[in-house]
Amino acid sequence: MPGDYRVLANIHDEIHLGTFAQHMTPRLIDFAQRDQWMGRQIVDLGCGAGISLRWLSQHGYIVTGIDQSPEMLELAEKNLQGMNVRLIENSIREVTSISGVDMALCLDTLHELDSLSDLQQVFQHVQTMLKDEKLFVFDIYTIEGLVQRHQQGDTFEYDSDSLTIFTRNNFDYERQIQRREYIIFQRNGDAWVKYNTFRVLRAYPIQAVTALAKRSGFEVLHVLNTDLSVHHPGDHTSRVIIMAQKH
Question: Which residues pair with 169 in a beta bridge?
């Protein structure tokens, strides 16, 4: 169910794909450190354009980024020029070449998976990556958050002399899936070329995700709202952030 990143990579900045990672990465590292986490080796799952990797590398962490989109990794290479960052092209459900890390960070990614079974595959692989007692930090959309995205309706996303982007939103209430279509007009010389692409996100019940993490060998330390307050059932939040520790 991942979006079409062959096209999305070209409009990454214009549609603000890296905003959540840019905003949350330093805050999550600070929160983890205040919660007694220590470490230097971090793997970023679904690293995209390398927004989190850039901040982590600038602050002295030894980092590896994994993404299955070659177009996004090409963008990451440009953003990370001059930095000592390892990039791996692979699905986060399949990678087996990483071990001995202190934190696995996964932002704005897991809600692109098709099922809880896919989530379980990721959790099992993260188990093999982490040192004992180290952290897996990830976010998932709430149903409320996806409904909010849908309720934005058709929007005029971006406009410049050479690029115009419209978005169209659709929500499948039965499957709890939100699809955002991007209609792109890009100038090519004297002509305009039209592209269509999309991103599909899925919400999972928080209880089901935390139960799955526990069955996969993690202790769930924190379930947080995006302001890093403790999440309680009934809280109005677009996403939750889960911090889990490998047993």
Answer: 180
Q: Could you tell me whether strands 62-67 and 85-89 are parallel, antiparallel, or unpaired per DSSP bridges?
A: parallel
Amino acid sitting at position 58: Q
Q: What is the pLDDT of residue 1?
A: 45
pTM: 0.95
218-224 and 41-45 beta bridge pairing = unpaired
Q: Is 102:40 a contact under the CB 8 Å cutoff?
A: yes
Domains and CATH numbers, the chain: 5-142+205-246 (3.40.50.150), 144-202 (2.20.25.110)
Q: Are 18 and 39 in contact (CB under 8 A)?
A: no
Is residue 65 a contact partner of residue 76, using CB atoms and an 8 Å limit?
A: yes
pLDDT value at residue 243: 98
Strands 155-159 and 130-141 turn out to be unpaired
